[in-house]
Design a protein that fits this description.
The complex is a heterodimer of chains A (455) and B (622). The N terminus of chain A is likely disordered. In chain A, strand 9 and strand 10 form a beta hairpin. Chain A has a 15-stranded mixed beta sheet that branches. A two-stranded antiparallel sheet of chain A has the order 3-4. In chain A, strands 16-17 form a two-stranded antiparallel sheet. Chain A is of the alpha+beta class. Chain A is built from nine helices and 19 strands. In chain A, 15% of the residues lie in helices and 29% in strands. In chain B, 12% of the residues lie in helices and 45% in strands. In chain B, the strands form six sheets. Chain B has a 20-stranded antiparallel beta sheet that branches. A six-stranded mixed beta sheet of chain B has the order 13-14-21-17-24-25. A three-stranded antiparallel beta sheet of chain B has the order 18-20-19. The chains are: A alpha+beta (455), B mainly beta (622). At the A-B interface, strand 6, strand 10 and helix 9 of A face strand 2, strand 3, strand 8, helix 7 and strand 11 of B.
Chain lengths: 455, 622
């Protein structure tokens, strides 16, 4: 990393001063009283369509087989309480994302089956305790793009800025990691034809969420996310492997990626795959920073917190993530509405506007973050002329057996081409299994990819 | 079998269409999924994937009369006239992996091919043919080697190895035993591969690489029998060792192939044309030209296990570096040959000298100096001048370091290596009766043909590579683009053996004279447009590589002004089918004889500089 200039240090110091008094101890006392420990409103809404938070789904449903990679739907017997179609846009428009409205307007087959709201998310005790400490301890510096004084947990349960809110999404708790689970990504073109984009075994880990890390401050340059993918499909990609390491702050330690290419039987450092570089796995329908609705560095945008809103968002999406047959999911133009569960939830709305002089194919983005998990559940992306360009949705389901929200099944719709991509389907294979402990650090060494690669 | 010497494109095109129809049926039937074989055991996984590739190619450049006038570079050129079908090839690559608990397993792969375009060759120039039937040249005939590898139908096993991933004492270790490819260093493109620390770790299939667009890279880097161990003692350090028990030379487009590098090379090339035949036409049936006959590779013992071919490497990624350093030491065998010529006939030898050598005196100061290389009867009947053989250097010591680092989002890598005992660009080494050796600098005595290594020029060389990989985001011109660029450099430090035949010696004046330093550049650029039609991504792959300055001191190392390029359009359909239309071109300089024939080509692309062609490729994996 380049050494910071004196000016930058000075600017950072000023920014730090201005942000330091953000959350007072009095405000922080709301956590655990009117607010949950991660900052969600404890109470339900006055209509009763959002229930109060009562501690989440503390126990797996009886239908769940211990140790299984398939998480059964605890609400499988429920019926939709409301069905939203294009004719309801006027009445329900304030509770729908722009992307949802666009899908309803474009496709008569699109509909939202709205089910009763369940606030399922419950988190490990130590993550919650750290989050409460972070409320008064953690701060952003350098105009929001960097962090200081963060314990493993959500850094800003009472966010004052858009940047703080998106940091909560970026550092969200997703468990310790995925243990070589096989997932599929599919592209559906504008004619409605699905094509397998990726089938791979995912070894993911979030080392800062190792319980041994609980008492140690997070360093901006330490690894936040290890992602090792061993490709098995489509057939022509069988044998490829990818290792990607994201640090806590990608501006201080940019993403590092290595590829094992079977043709060369060798591990090669990949160029920086970040920002708006198209993600080939999505046939151009998404960028690298569209993965899981948003990831990566936040420095190209100004972030604005627009507040909390009640919205219809995909939620408790067990049926989609663990559905056995991908062909049932990938219906023309949009995901099969029968398999998508929508619920009314309070979300934080965060708007990102491209900074003058920075480049990105999206000039403006609006993110909708779940108040109970900080997962970005939806987004709207606008092109340089301000037209709605793409929209994405994450299909969160709470992994009750490991006390971790799962939000890595996501779809992105490209309104320019009419194509869409769905990533992270774990149903067609063996389901999703979690790590119980972090693997040997040598397993994350780039050269180890060569050993893993067979072809 | 004597072939029809007239081309019949209709028949060839018809058989391609038939092959296409059959393959469409196969791929349609198998298009549902790749073959994940159900083993009934969750710990045991088995995969069987098949890649089918169809190529049709048409020559798009007229024959260069100057190249045709060189009788050792014309056979492939004459086989396909402008506008004719140069390939109508079907390839199959089949891969089977069986893995138990992600820990133990084996892999085999096999390739099969058939190219009916080789059934009808245009060549009718018997006088300049290098392929022999019963000792006499025949035009439009393929050597058995070219017949197998260029025409087929034929096939071969590629990978065949077992592997294990174990963690003794918590240290991850990967072991592979059998025929496989492991490839060290950081080289990216073909030019870099010649100058890399990995040189000789694999054999290259240049026949497939040149003539079959769309070939998988894993088919071009040919596996060899070896034991490879890789261990990861710490997250920052990886060490590997490799020991070979099998050797294999580079496979080149051989005599009769459209892209024949030289008519006499290598395993199938049967003769080189040396001089006009003094017995023609006085002796009925004797060919117009004298030829030396290919008697194969020396030594044959290379196929045995006692190769002395092994290496060690370490890859170190300390956090302060934010990159990876590599260290390599190898003892390698060459995969490109030098040539030894054993004349039977010599001219300009007075009868007394001839007699003193124990030779057979012929009229006009001619002498049969080596009765093992030719006899008067063979000379008269076949125009047999002598014999030649190929020899491969061994005991090449390679020491290298590499660095890989990301700078400003671009993946950069570099290599610097030093080789000792490296075979250098050599003229042909004459193998002569001992008494003549002093008169011909660089020649060796018939009794001195080595059983290992090569008697040509050897020396110490430096090699350097810098390359970059980048992916570009959307611009007004494309949705995304990938860029790979590689700069190569070499310098010869000193000559340690047979400087007289070294093409860099002060006495050598050919156009391909080796220079002290060489620089070459290769660039691949592929812009992509997504979803141009539903389910269709379009791209425009472009490649260019050229020697920038100097002529390299090692074979295929590069020559100034000699290059290859291609430009194409490809459609990826549902990430499953790929169709690509490409123009492939070659260029470079050559010197000419007094009569205007190509004399010396400055690099392989120069001798192919009239061979531009258009290829249409379809491939799919299922």
């Amino acid at each position: 990393m380049l050494r910071k200039s004196w000016m930058a240090v000075l600017a950072a110091a000023l920014a730090a001063t201005s942000a330091a008094a953000a959350v007072t101890p009095e405000e922080a006392k709301q956590l655990g009283t009117t607010l949950t420990l991660v900052g969600a409103e404890m109470a339900g809404n006055k209509e009763g369509t959002i229930p109060p938070y009562t501690g989440g789904l503390a126990h797996p449903p009886a239908s769940y087989q211990k140790g299984s990679g398939f998480r059964t739907d605890p609400f499988a017997d429920e019926k939709p309480r409301l069905v939203i179609t294009a004719k309801d846009i006027a009445a329900q428009g304030d509770k729908l994302t722009e992307g949802t409205k666009e899908l309803l307007k474009r496709y008569p087959t699109m509909r939202l089956d709205v089910y009763p709201t369940h606030r399922t998310v419950a988190l490990p005790r130590w993550v919650l305790q750290n989050t409460v400490k972070n409320a008064t301890g953690a701060k952003t510096v350098e105009n929001g793009v960097a962090l200081e004084n963060v314990l493993p947990g959500y850094p800003f349960p009472i966010p004052k800025t858009g940047a703080e809110a998106i940091w909560n999404h970026l550092l969200r708790y997703s468990g310790l990691g995925y243990d070589g689970s096989r997932y599929e990504n599919w592209n559906v073109d504008s004619a409605g034809v699905p094509a397998l984009a990726v089938r791979a075994d995912a070894y993911w880990a979030w080392p800062i969420y190792d319980p041994k890390h609980a008492g140690t401050m997070v360093s901006p340059t330490e690894p936040f996310w290890y992602n090792k993918l061993l490709y098995v499909g489509p057939a022509r990609r069988n044998g490829e492997a990818l290792l990607l390491i994201d640090s806590v702050n990608p501006l201080e330690q940019p993403r590092k990626a290595w590829q094992y290419l079977p043709g060369q039987r060798r591990v090669r450092l990949a160029p920086d795959l970040a920002y708006d570089t198209p993600n080939p796995g999505a046939a151009g329908a998404g960028t690298y920073d569209d993965v899981s609705v948003f990831n990566g560095a936040i420095d190209r945008y100004d972030w604005k917190l627009l507040g909390r809103r009640e919205m219809y968002v995909p939620y408790d999406s067990y049926r989609l993530t663990y559905h056995k047959n991908a062909a049932d999911i990938t219906t023309p133009h949009h995901l099969n509405p029968d398999l998508v569960r929508w619920e009314l939830h309070r979300v934080w709305v965060v708007e990102a506007t491209l900074k003058p002089g920075k480049r990105h194919i999206y000039s403006r983005r609006v993110f909708y973050l779940d108040e109970d998990s900080w997962t970005a559940l939806a987004s709207d992306e606008y092109d340089a002329r301000g037209k709605l360009y793409r929209s994405s949705f994450a299909f969160q389901s709470y992994s009750y057996d490991v006390l971790a929200p799962f939000g890595d099944t996501f779809a992105i719709y490209d309104f320019g081409t009419g194509a869409y991509n769905i990533t992270g389907l774990f149903g067609p294979n063996q389901g999703l299994k979690y790590m119980t402990r972090l693997p040997n650090p040598s397993d994350w060494a780039p050269e180890a990819l060569a050993g893993a690669g067979l072809r | 079998m004597i072939r029809s010497t007239e081309s019949n494109p209709v028949v060839a095109a018809g058989s391609l269409a038939a092959a296409l129809a059959v393959l469409w049926t196969i791929t349609a039937a198998g298009s549902a999924q790749a073959f994940e074989i159900a083993t009934g055991n969750p710990d045991l996984s088995a995969r069987w994937d098949n890649t089918v590739r169809l190529n049709a190619g048409v020559r798009a450049q007229s024959q260069d009369p100057k190249i045709l006038a060189n009788p050792n570079f014309d056979d492939g050129d004459r086989n396909f006239s402008n506008g004719s079908l140069v390939t109508s090839r079907v390839d199959l690559l089949s891969e089977l992996d069986v893995v138990y608990k992600r820990t133990f397993g084996f892999r085999t792969s096999a390739a099969a091919w058939w190219d009916p375009a080789y059934r009808h060759l245009d060549n009718n120039s018997t006088a300049t043919a290098n392929t022999l039937v019963d000792g006499l040249p025949v035009a439009g005939e393929l050597s058995p080697f070219a017949k197998r590898y260029s025409e087929g139908p034929s096939g071969e096993i590629l990978d065949a190895f077992v592997f294990a991933n174990v963690e003794p004492g918590g240290v991850p270790v990967n072991a592979k035993v059998g025929r496989h490819t492991v490839f060290w260093g950081e080289s990216l493109l073909l030019g870099g591969a010649v100058h890399s620390v990995s040189y000789g770790q694999y054999s290259l299939d240049l026949q497939k690489g040149f003539a079959t667009p769309g070939s998988e890279v894993k088919e071009l880097f040919r596996p060899r029998g070896a034991v490879t161990l890789q261990a990861q003692p710490t997250p920052e350090l990886s060490v590997a060792g490799q020991w070979f028990y099998e050797w294999q030379a580079v496979r080149v487009p051989e005599s009769g192939d459209y892209l024949t590098i030289q008519d006499g090379l290598n395993f199938g090339g049967q003769s080189v044309i040396v001089a006009p035949n003094p017995f023609f036409p006085a002796v009925p049936g004797t060919p117009a030209m004298l030829r030396a006959w290919n008697v194969g590779t020396t030594p044959q013992s290379r196929t045995s296990a006692s190769l002395g071919d092994y290496g060690l490497s370490a890859r170190w990624s300390p956090s302060w570096l934010d990159g990876t350093l590599g260290f390599y030491a190898r003892n390698a065998n060459d995969i490109l040959p030098q040539i030894l010529l054993t004349p039977g006939l010599a001219t300009g030898i007075p009868a007394a000298t001839c007699g003193a050598l124990g030779g057979q005196v012929l009229p006009g100061n001619a002498c049969i100096v080596n009765p093992k290389a030719t006899t008067l009867a063979d000379l008269q009947r076949y125009g047999k001048y002598g014999t030649y053989q190929t020899a491969y250097g061994d005991n090449i010591h390679i020491f290298g370091v590499s660095l890989a680092k990301e700078i400003a989002g671009v993946s950069f890598a570099a290599e610097l290596s030093y080789r000792q005992n490296q075979p250098l660009q050599s003229n042909i080494v004459d193998v002569l009766p001992a008494a003549l050796v002093p008169k011909f600098p660089g020649s060796i005595a018939t009794t001195d043909v080595p059983s290992n290594g090569t008697p040509g020029a050897l020396g110490d060389t430096y090699h350097g590579i810098i390359n970059a990989l980048d992916v570009l985001p959307k611009t007004a011109l494309f949705d995304t683009a990938s860029l790979a660029a590689e700069l190569t450099w070499m310098q010869w430090a000193r000559v340690t053996q047979n400087e007289a035949v070294f093409k860099g010696s002060p006495d050598y004046t050919g156009i391909d004279k080796v220079s002290k330093n060489y620089f070459g550049l290769a660039v691949n650029f592929t812009p992509t447009w997504f979803q141009v039609l539903p389910g269709v991504d379009l791209s425009a792959p472009m490649t260019w590589s050229q020697g920038l300055s100097g002529n390299a001191a090692v074979q295929l190392g590069g020559n100034k002004g000699a290059g290859t390029w291609s430009a194409g359009v490809a459609a990826d359909i549902y990430q499953k089918h790929r169709i690509q239309l490409t123009y492939n071109g070659y260029y470079g300089d050559y010197s000419q004889t007094a009569t205007g024939a190509m004399n010396v080509a400055n690099g392989v692309p120069a001798s192919l500089s009239d061979r531009g062609w258009v290829s249409l490729t379809y491939k799919t994996t299922f």
